[in-house]
């Protein structure tokens, strides 16, 4: 698996890079951002995959979240993939919440999306193998987190792949896509009308259907987030976890909105959550 | 002086806002970004103006530097103005290093720039008065710093206005614009061909001409910065300061380039430099 270097910059003693590779999962060239702290020169390190939200590429998180400062301190590799396949030969939609930039971390079954929109397989299978091959990662010490649509992805991947991802957290996630407009629009397009087929991609449904994690799932949510009541609804996931006995903490923060100033404020605590769980691996 | 709120977001317990106002100095609507940490709700705080580099607006620093995390810890207000007047009725040039986005912190005397390109007066006079009026600032406790073209601006303003700016620092600054291509191009256009008229806008020349500061000037420079040898040349300023007895520290950092990953890595130490000097005011 070849990795093409788009850019590399020294940052907080480590290296912040942007790379691309030919993805077998999506059939496209996929970009990703990787920060390797200085400790990675001599040791294999725990790592966290960060999944971004609607309309983002691998770049938004990389330049806006300030994660490198904390990752350098904690000795964590941080990987941020793009949010969908892209390119002139890839299906798209003019809306920001469907198509390129809005992969929703599912394997699409419907036309015209099915050939390339396979972000679940990409993040669950191809990406972990790629980064393990190319960067100094400690086997088994991989966490996953995300923001908004990427928080949905992190919860779903964490619940379905507990053996692959040893820690899970989410910032302002879409926790019940089958029940909110962003999710029902995307799932109808990518997965079709049979709502039973949506359940493997809905964190709340996955908990209802028996999926569990042994570790605590951490969620943070801003209370001034304009998408909170319509699209995010963390209370639905919290209630399902309470009924099922799944450990979850939902921290609510007065005054914070949905943007990257919220992500930047909380990213340090989230990376610490992962570092503590991954230290045991 | 009215201030129009473009956006405000909670960030690290404080408020990160973007505002605009009708500038008397430039005759245009000018934008600025202001971070007020939580301490500003009950106290008047020291503040630092950050001047950005070529092609930047007030936004680049605001979203990329991660300054809010340190400013919240140190109790500093941080203000980032735009780098030039802008608008359809403002002179411009297709090059990235002249015209809109490239004000060079001078008061232009030449056509077509003179009517609006008055960034020296804007930063020296109008901006300090505006922020003192609108935000919880402690009188006399104002520092200035900048990056690249903005580092040039900070050094010049700091040397010419030591009574107004109580602390000065720069990241990868243009220290001798009269001697390098970026500066000679801009100064020829904005100030004309008489090089004597450039000296008040050249930090190295200002030191040669007797300008001094009582405090230490801090400069940081990446050694993998592709502009180092042609445009930045910190050794010219260091030599002038050594001859003149002006205290300066130039910290060089192996492997770091010119971009915001370098700024993000050093911004905490720079804000600390300012906080320590401003604490005495």
Largest interface: A-B, 24 and 24 residues
Helix content of chain A: 25-40%
What is the overall pLDDT average of chain A?
Answer: 98
Distance between the termini of chain A: 26 Å
Sheet bearing the most strands of chain A, described? 9 strands, mixed
- Give the strand line-up of the largest sheet of chain A: 1-2-3-5-4-6-7-8-9
SS-derived structural category of chain A: alpha/beta
Number of distinct beta strands of chain A: 9
The radius of gyration over CA of chain A amounts to: 17 Å
- In what range is the share of β-strand residues of chain A? 15-25%
Runs of chain A in which pLDDT lies below 50 for 5 or more consecutive residues are none
In oligomeric terms, what are we looking at?
homodimer
Order of helices and strands of chain A: EEEEHHEHEHEHHEHHEH
Number of helices of chain A: 9
Taken from the alpha-carbon principal axes, the silhouette of chain A is: globular
Keywords (chains A, B): Hydrolase, Serine esterase
EC number (chains A, B): 3.1.2.12
Active site (chains A, B): 148 (charge relay system), 225 (charge relay system), 258 (charge relay system)
Family (chains A, B): Belongs to the esterase D family.
């Amino acid at each position: 698996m070849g990795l093409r270097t788009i850019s590399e910059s020294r940052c907080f003693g480590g290296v912040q890079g942007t790379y691309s590779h030919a993805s077998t999962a999506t059939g496209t060239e996929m970009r990703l951002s990787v920060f390797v702290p200085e400790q990675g020169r001599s040791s294999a390190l725990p790592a966290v995959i960060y999944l971004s939200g609607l309309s983002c590429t691998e770049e938004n998180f990389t330049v806006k979240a300030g994660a490198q400062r904390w990752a350098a301190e904690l000795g964590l590799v941080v990987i941020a993939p793009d949010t969908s396949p892209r390119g002139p030969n890839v299906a798209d939609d003019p809306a920001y919440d469907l198509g390129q930039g809005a992969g929703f971390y599912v394997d699409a079954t419907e036309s015209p999306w099915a050939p390339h929109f396979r972000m679940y397989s990409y993040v669950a299978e191809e990406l972990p193998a790629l980064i393990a091959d190319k960067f100094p990662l400690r086997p088994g010490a991989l966490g996953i987190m995300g923001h908004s649509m990427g928080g949905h992805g992190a919860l779903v991947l964490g619940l379905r792949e507990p053996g692959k991802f040893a820690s899970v957290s989410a910032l302002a996630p879409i926790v019940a896509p089958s029940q909110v407009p962003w999710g029902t629009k995307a799932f109808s397009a990518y997965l079709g009308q049979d709502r039973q087929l949506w359940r493997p991609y809905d964190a709340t449904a996955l908990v209802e259907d028996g999926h569990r994690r042994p570790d605590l799932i951490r969620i943070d949510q801003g209370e001034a987030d304009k998408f909170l009541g319509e699209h995010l609804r963390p209370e639905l996931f919290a209630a399902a976890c309470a009924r099922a006995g799944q450990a979850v903490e939902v921290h609510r923060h007065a005054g914070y909105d949905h943007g990257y100033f919220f992500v930047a404020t909380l990213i340090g605590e989230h990376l610490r959550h992962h570092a503590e769980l991954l230290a045991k691996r």
